[in-house]
Amino acid sequence: MILIYGSQRDFDALTGRPGAQAPWSAEDLAKMGAFMEAWNNDLIESGEFVDAQGLTAPVHARRVSLRDGVPVVTDGPYAETQEVLAGYNIVECDSFDRATEIAARLAGTPHPEGAALEHAWHVDVRPIAGSRHELDL
């Protein structure tokens, strides 16, 4: 599984929310969309694509915890959290190293020139528990 991260500020810039710092232009969004479409299509053509989903902005998240055995629900975004899961991709490939190569291609995702990202850009690659590649580790 390839996990992609963002922040509320990143979501605001992508969606052009009023007051967002450095909002993305329609051209910037089109470049990113074309890149992601080509990346996904390459995985479909190679037979490695399983699933991919983006998630809604952190402002729509709810965190559920227990306090003295009682569920406590907190609406997002969370001030103490600088980054949140923004989406995921599941790939089925020959090795954990190949999954890492696939994820590394995301480093070339287009963004507006001079855009200040909320956090250092990265994705995580993790085998799904019970998968054949969990044993590769």
- Mind summarizing the main beta sheet? 4 strands, antiparallel
Give the strand order of the largest sheet, numbering strands 1, 2, ... along the chain.
Answer: 2-5-1-6
Low-confidence stretches: none
Instruction: Output the number of helix runs.
Output: 3
Radius of gyration: 17 Å
* Alpha carbon gap, first and last residue: 14 Å
The 3D shape can be described as flat
Give the ordered list of helices and strands.
Answer: EHHEEEEHE
- State the total count of DSSP E strands: 6
- Share of residues in strands: 15-25%
Helical coverage, percent range: 25-40%
The chain-level structural class is alpha+beta
Question: Could you tell me the mean pLDDT?
Answer: 84
